[in-house]
Structure prediction request, 556 residues.
Amino acid sequence: MVEFQLKNREDVWLHERIAAHTITVAIRDSLAELIGVQSSELGCEVKQVRPEPGAMCQSIMIYDTHAAGYASRADKCMDESFFLLGF
Amino acid sequence: MNSTHHQSNCLMHQVEKIYVLLLNWLVTLFQQAYQKLCCPENCDSACPHCVLDFDQRFAMDNLDRHQAIRWLNKEWLDDLQLPGEFAFFGPASAPEHKKIYEAILYTVGKHSCRGVRCYTGAPLDTWEIASSSLRTLTYKLAGQDIDVEIVLPGECLDKLDTLDSYLLAGMADLPHVRFLSSKQELRAGQGHVIAETIGSEVCSHWAGKNESVISFNQDWGQIEETDNILVRCDNGEVPVSLKRSMGADELRPVINENNDCILDVYQELNGSMKEFGTGFWQLILDKHSAGKELLTDDALAVKSVQYHDRYLKSPLTAGLFFLLIDALRQIVGETRWGSVYVDFTTMNIKSDKGYYPSSRLWDDWKENGIRKEVMKELFSSRGMNLTLRNKEKREIPHHRKLTVEFTSNDKLIISFDQGVSYWQTKYTEFDFSLTAGQQAEHFNRIINNPENRIHAGDANHTILAVKRV
Prediction:
């Protein structure tokens, strides 16, 4: 599973649920493209968390839907992506 | 044991490798996600052309690309990129996400480098070699058999004081450490080159925007400001500066054996807190005959006593300084001491540093006023007068220097590499909520408790440069 908690340059955490949910889907789709799988192989969710005292954030979570093991293959997929991207 | 250590190092390198790759990869991921939000059909909220997938058909109410773009937009993505003003090495410039020490260690291991060359500069009055992060880094790297070359500005040697020169010579005595002198500072565009790896096919450079990043002090290589970035470049084109090698003997200060001496103090002053001052001056009397002549000459009265220390701001260090001066007064006697004022200059306490409440003897006071009052009360409890001046950092010499002037105009000058901060004590509570007078009384009670002892700190030793002029 991959989890992101985003903050903007004003140090404000992403806490609007609709914005967070939409970004989550966009990131999920991009991640699927980058690692070369169908986006339906990856599920996505948002969850309200407290990243630091006094602050709330919608945490972005992306996971395998069919226990296909993409998460555990992440380093291999990343290496391939970097190669394609010239890193 | 070695095998376990090796495996642990390999694992660390793997983790670091993935971390660096991931950082670059994330930029691409977020850029693509942003593109997804920029619907080619310019829809009102979400549609099959952007983020409305089959599996999101029941979540339509939770999708709005316009709300999302208020967050994930070009400005936000630009913050992930290196701004043009930081492209010191041209297109090959990249943000360095690690601290300089971690970055150097990682790169040296990754490219099997022989070592690293570190650059220094900035005005010499900003240097604090004794407490500098470069000195600490040098010991750490040399301890791992990594060569360290430190490049000094060509003109600095003549201007360094005895203690600083002695510290540099001590570093140059170590295996794997070498000093070079360069007439010109190494610049990369508008950046100041901080370090480069040496002895490998891949040469990595790091640079910072402000000159302060190469000052030989505790902030060397540190990027603390939020609007600043540590920039890295692998195999970029960086101009080469001419350098001259300097041996330890060239760095070692010239000592006038009659008037100067340098003392390496280890655990000699471990013992009762009450005896700290007496022990200190006994050390000077034993080791520095020129100073002993001044201290024991009944014909000479004390004309002035001055001390500069930027970082004296806890009851423990203030108390140890007080014990030093009180013992000096006892050695010269009441008559020779007279009514001299002890002139103490220190740095303003930054009140915004109070993240935690002070409760121990070595915690800091939170503001200038209470420090001044407590120290004045402490000195007056033994019949001494203290003048305390608070100044900005740049207005105070970096040396921690005690100067005792006698009526013959002779001076005994003692420079400390760490001040009295070298000495520590066991956990002792201190009530910072008391009034100044009560805090002074509290400290006097702590001194008089024979169970309270002073011991050498974590540093291996402290250095005193004693001079008679």
